[in-house]
Amino acid sequence: MRRLRTHAVLLTILAGIAGLWSSPWPGAAVAAATGQNQTPAPSQQTEIELVIGAGDAGTPPRYAVPDFVAGSPDAAEIAKSIGQVLWDDLAFEREFYLIPRDTYSTIPPARSPEQVPFAAWRELGADAVFFGSVQKSGDKVVVQVRLFNVRTRQQVFSKEYSGTASNPRLYAHTVADEVHLQQRALRGVARTKLTFVSDRNKERLLGPVDNREVKEIYISDYDGANQRRITTTRQLNINPSWSPDAKAVAYSSYRNLTPQIFLSLIYQGVLENVTKNVGSNYMPVFSPDGTKLAFVSNRDGNTEIYVMNRDGSNVRRLTNHPAYESTPTWSPNGAQIAFTSDRSGKPQVYIMNAADGSNVRRLTVSESSADRATWSPAPFNEIAYAAQTGEWYDIKIHDLATGMVRQITFGEGSNESPAYSPNGKHLAFTSTRAGGLQVFTIGRDGRGLKQITRSGNNQTPAWSQ
Amino acid sequence: MVSSRRLGIAFAVICLVAAPACSRRKKPDTTPQPAPTIEAPAAVTPAPPPPRPGAQRVEDLQPTSPALSEDSVANRSLDELNRDSPLRPAFFVLDSSDLDEAGRSIVTGNVEVLKKYPQWVVTIEGHCDERGTAEYNLALGERRASAVKTYMVSLGIAPDRLRTVSYGKEFPFDQAHTEDAWSQNRRAHFVITAK
User: Fold this and answer.
1) Of A47, A272, A389, A394, which sits with the fewest C-beta atoms within 10 Å of its C-beta?
2) Who wins on pLDDT, A232 or A211?
């Protein structure tokens, strides 16, 4: 995967980065020289409009993603996969309207970029259409992708990627992220990952106890593909979270009997016991700059919030209250921490200064109980949490600018442990709605619910950068 | 005593027949293991396969020693003691870490056992039912374990013989989603960790 990414980055540099335009649809046009594209547009115009607008004002541009063309029979499966995953990735962000793929059957497939039947795509209502091809040679593939404005027939995006044939989805994810960046100035999530807790292996806990199943830490792509276990402790492991560089997962493990915070450098196979068996320690969360971890510990007798350096040094206590304090989450600039305390009698969300724990103020004032706050990344300025709604919980979001609270799940099972995507547009959370505990994602507007896990019980997701 | 000795022998026999399942409980593996390196590319790297049920590992083939002594409590292994524990769990009402009269009575009984075996060290596990968030229940489990420890210390048990740990709602005793199951799951469970 990293090898592939290196290739892609190299090619991106060679091709020149097309630049960023922030423009709301419909159709704000920005002109740019064709020389910024890897391949000149066939029309050889001196200027082309790189951002594809919608045909109808007030609606999102309509995109079509036909199957990629396989250069040989053994590339057919990869080509089919890339087309489908690209469609899914683009649909996930809901920046464009993705024309359903089963409506393309009347349109003759293009074997080359020159053969794209623009008139037929226009009849289908497409504003933008992809042409992609896959050449396979041994374990190597070369993927070419072009994006055309259907009305002007101009090419607005052209890239070539090369790498291994083992994870075709990554080519699609890379294209989706680059197209979102170019067309919408949006940081897409197609190459991000989730980490979560699962008991799917149904292994019995080691140790002299009653019937208990181990829970291990897993990672997966943002869409639930490529789910893999990263711990093999045969113990209880909970509260995973990503480092900002997405190369490490911090979590709480009971492998030494009491829960300790471990830092796993997942691509190096390096594991560090950060809290070194001092008390019980939970819920590690990295500061936005990646240098510190906020966490929860009972090392001084009561459950309080602490901050330490990433290597476990310089432990500082931030809260000091006879109630319990838990579930820290950093503000995007690292200056504040939101957390849960039951100092009012029931768990509620509070905010304090991250430097010294000062300036504590209560955020949730109209919930019977609120827990596990998660602070959105910019540009959104909001905090999501699990609120008690009757016997169980639903996800709500508190807008920090207006103080308005909106609910995004509505009583389908219990919904807990929200975690924002790095672009702030989505949340992952745990729900009982499908039986057992499963991880779901949903838009911050409450739309686009998607089930990520299905095997065993899965809980407490965290979303990588 | 006789009956537990018989149980011990019976268990040893079962273990000889079905060694893997029994000795899986033998001892907690406290050695930190490095996470496996995950190599790119992802698609061809399978997850570490779970051990097949019934798959025998070398250490699984060591049968547990049968308990043959006259004092079947003092001479049993920790695993045997905890499997048929003289320490009984104490239960709590919803969202509470207060020991009620029934709970105090159970803990008092456990204190008597610990006074009889002064070398025992015990871990008090705090557990919760599935209501309340996973995060809240970790704190509630801490409080339950701490409340039990405080009460046992007040009855004369040295604090350094009592360790506490919270499992929140991660290990329900009864997996069902009923009031009856929940009442079983709100508990302080006692594990003898040294003798």
Assistant:
1) A47
2) A232
